Amino acid sequence: MKITAQEEYGLRILIRIAGCKDAAGISIPQLSESEGLSSHYVAKLARALRMGGFIKSTPGNKGGYLLAKSAKDIVIKDLLTVLGGEMFDKEFCGQHTGAMRLCTNSVDCSARSLWQMVQFVVNQLLVRITLHDLVSNETESSKNLGSLLKDSLVLAE
User: What is the pTM of this model?
Assistant: First the structure.
């Protein structure tokens, strides 16, 4: 399983916007410089984030991007779905058919059960994590996420 560049950079840009203290927001050039990405790519990601309802732009020469809603209301699963979709979705099996038109295991596939279970577990964790949990230094974020994981494991028992 891989996290796409779009998911990683989109999340990092959203964290950067959430941490911005300027009432006018943070601009594409500022995001580009702080994340080491091209302005074109940052603009592409910002558009996806805006279309997904996560950020809004402030007008004018000194304008920039702000969160469209509270960091506590931005669920990371929703963000990753907008940026890249599910790891295992309904089209997964159709994309891995080998040399044939249909997968030889399309009727009876124990591997499909594994991927569905992995997706379910990942989703159960990601719906509990908000942007607010990530807008801090790494030590604090790790502590927040560790608590969420521990709570999730206790609920599963």
Answer: 0.81
